[in-house]
Amino acid sequence: MSFQNPVFIPGPTNIPESVRKACDMPTLDHRSPAFARIFKPAVEGVRRVLKMAAGEVILLPSTGTGGWEAAISNTLSPGDTVLAARFGMFSHRWIDLCQRHGLRVQIIETPWGQGAPLAAIEAALKADPTIKAVLATHNETATGVKSDIAGIRRAMDAAGHGAMLMVDGVSSIGSMPFEFTGWGVDIAVAGSQKGFMLPAGLAILGLSPKAIAAMETATLPRTFFDFKDMLTAYARGGFPYTPPVGLIAGLAHAIDLLEAEGLENVYARHHRLAEGVRRAITAWGMTPYAATPDLYSDTVTAVKVPAGCDGTALVQLAASKYGVAFGVGLGEVAGKVFRIGHLGMLTDVMVLSGLAAAEMCMADLGWPITLGSGVAAAQDYYRGTVPAMAMAAE
Ligand SMILES: *Cc1c(COP(=O)(O)O)cnc(C)c1O
Questions:
Q1: What residues does ligand 1 touch, defined as CB less than 6 Å away?
Q2: What CATH code is carried by the domain that includes residue 65?
């Protein structure tokens, strides 16, 4: 069959037709002024999405993981200490990447399903003035947990600590509120294939003046990801090597779409979509893996499956029988959850189709749910709240 359903994974996300077209362009000389005309709006657009009053935006041909690597290798030196809480697969992977680069990571082990522990972060900072950076996973995609980045900044200030604040916003930026300058973020990392609704291929970073200054003394090796080479080339309207021009053009267009809907409306839409999913889960007699409602992510929900049920079996059946993609549980929660991604190009009606497909799989697998129960709960919620038509009207 050549038709395709929307995906319900927390990245890569569905690509709007006009974004796909914006990426599809003829070869262009990236040393010509034509490239600068594509590049500048993309960089300026990212600056607005991140809410940056000062600093620089960097676009790298990479993915979120490369963004992590670029963030640390440009600003830190071997043996430096960084502080990070581990509460899911993505916070774990960034820690692992730091360790492989010869950094000392002070890890605050935190139960999966919880978010960044503010009091423990403050205490750790007070105890160790040598910590160079605090790493924070804004939205832990493995567990569907959001953390309070403003709260981490307050904890850092309360400790009177001068460390940099580096935030993984790969699955939040562009879909959930983000305040680069307001939260005192020094490096923010995003990727093209989540909230920006593009194919994978770009790491998108924001750097504060403090992060830029840290480049001067940082001695971890970097070449392809060297911010200094990037910023030198950017100042001339170019790129230090061959840029993925189509993705950059697509990024500028995707930001146009987000801004045409209005960033606040985009965030409100994600909240509504997520809330409908949560109503459905409740109707199934299940709960999100996130420990408490204040931690619920608006971009991904990890659904705790009933005892004796296997979340991975549901994901496999959805793919093989119905051609629908959900996310499997990763690491510690493998089999114990399945994940519904609800970020990017999605409407109420698209989400309802995903919930309906999940119900069919549950019924097929003999899970104790009533067909239509979750869909009905989400329908009631969507009917009763303002529909997100800004996007559908595009
Ligand atoms: C997807 C994701 C990443 C990894 O990004 P890649 O683009 O797959 O390298 C990192 N952090 C979070 C929170 C993510 O959701």
A1: 11, 63-65, 90, 137, 139, 141, 168, 170-171, 191, 200
A2: 3.40.640.10
The neighbouring-strand residues paired with 193 are none
**Does 246 fall in a domain?**
yes
Residue with tokens 């659904």: 303
d(CA 107, CA 220): 20
301 and 228 in a common domain: no
Q: What is the pLDDT along the chain (394 residues), one digit of tens a residue?
A: 678 999 999 999 999 999 999 999 999 999 999 999 999 999 999 999 999 999 999 999 999 999 999 999 999 999 999 999 999 999 999 999 999 999 999 999 999 999 999 999 999 999 999 999 999 999 999 999 999 999 999 999 999 999 999 999 999 999 999 999 999 999 999 999 999 999 999 999 999 999 999 999 999 999 999 999 999 999 998 999 999 999 999 999 999 999 999 999 999 999 999 999 999 999 999 999 999 999 999 999 999 999 999 999 999 999 999 999 999 999 999 999 999 999 999 999 999 999 999 999 999 999 999 999 999 999 999 998 876 554 444 4
Residue among 69, 90, 146, 193 to mutate when testing ligand 1 (max atoms within 8 A of CB): 90
Three-state DSSP class for residue 11: coil
CA distance 70 to 79: 17
Give this prediction's pTM. 0.97
The atom number, within ligand 1, closest to the CA of 200 reads 7
Do 274 and 197 have their domain in common? no
- The answer to whether position 5 is within a domain reads no
Give domain status of residue 389, yes or no: no
The count of structural domains within the chain is 2
Mutate-to-test residue for ligand 1 from 62, 63, 137, highest number of ligand atoms within 8 A of CB: 63
C-alpha to C-alpha distances, 49 to 57, 123, 328, nearest whole angstrom: 11, 32, 29
